[in-house]
C-alpha cells in the first residue's frame, strides 16, 4: 500500500517506543493519526509532542486486551476522520525471564491477552472498515522472538510466533477479499525503548531488583539496539513494498535462517 497524505493511521501502544516512532514517521508523511495506549499520562505527552511537531493527532485511551475497548477505538477513529488506512497493532509488554516450567499462569494470561488477543481485537474491529473501503493494511508488531527461539522468555516468544503466523494467514485471507488489502508483521531485533519500565509499570514484570541477568544477557548477545524511528521506517518500507515481513536488526536474519535451516533439515530427515 502506498502511504499518502490523505490517509489515516491508528497506532496502539502509540505513547512510547516503536509505536511513537511509527507515529513520527507517519506524521512526517502527512498521515493523520489516532494514537492509542492504556497509559493515559504517556498518551497525553505523546499527543502534545506530535502536535507540536505539526501532526494532526487524536488520542484515545484503550486496552487492546479488551475487545469492547478496541471497538470503541474504531468508532472514535471513524467519528474523527471517517476512514482508516493503516492499523498498527503494536501495543505490548514483555514477560519475566524464567524457564517455561517456572512461568506463572497469570503471565501467560497477560501475554496472550495483550499480544495475541490484542491483535485479534484490532483485526476484528478494523477489518470490516477496510473491506467496506476496499483498501487498508494491518501492521502487526511481533519480534525477532517470533522468528527464532529466545530462551527464558517463552510467554513472550510464544505470542510473537503466534503474531507471525496470524499475520501471514491474515494477509492471504485479506487478499482473497480484495487485492488492495494486506498485512505485514514487524519482527525487529533489540530496540531502544522503555519496554522494561513500561511493562513493570503495567505489572507485567518486576524490576525492583534491577534488570534481570537473562535480559542483560540477551541485550549483550543481540548487540547494537535499533532506534524506534529506524524500526518504524523499515516497517513502513515493507508496507509500501507489499512485503509480509519486516525484520530490521543486524542479527535477525542469521537467527531466522538458523531456525529455518534446522526445521528444513529435520523435515528432510522425515
Ligand atoms: N523493545 C524491543 O527491543 C522490542 C523488540 C521487538 C519487538 N518489540 C515489541 O514492540 C512492541 C512495542 O514495544 P516497545 O519496545 O515500543 O515498548 P514500549 O513500552 O515503549 O511501548 C509499548 C506501549 O504499549 C502500551 N501497552 C501495553 N499494554 C497495553 C494494553 N493492554 N493496551 C494498550 N496499550 C498497551 C504501553 O503502555 C507502551 O506505551 C511490543 O509489542 C514489543 O513486544 C519490542
TrEMBL record:
Keywords: NADP, Oxidoreductase. Gene3D superfamilies: NAD(P)-binding Rossmann-like Domain. GO terms for molecular function: oxidoreductase activity. It comes from the Bacteria. This is SDR family NAD(P)-dependent oxidoreductase. Belongs to the short-chain dehydrogenases/reductases (SDR) family. The keyword Disulfide bond does not apply. SUPFAM superfamilies: NAD(P)-binding Rossmann-fold domains.
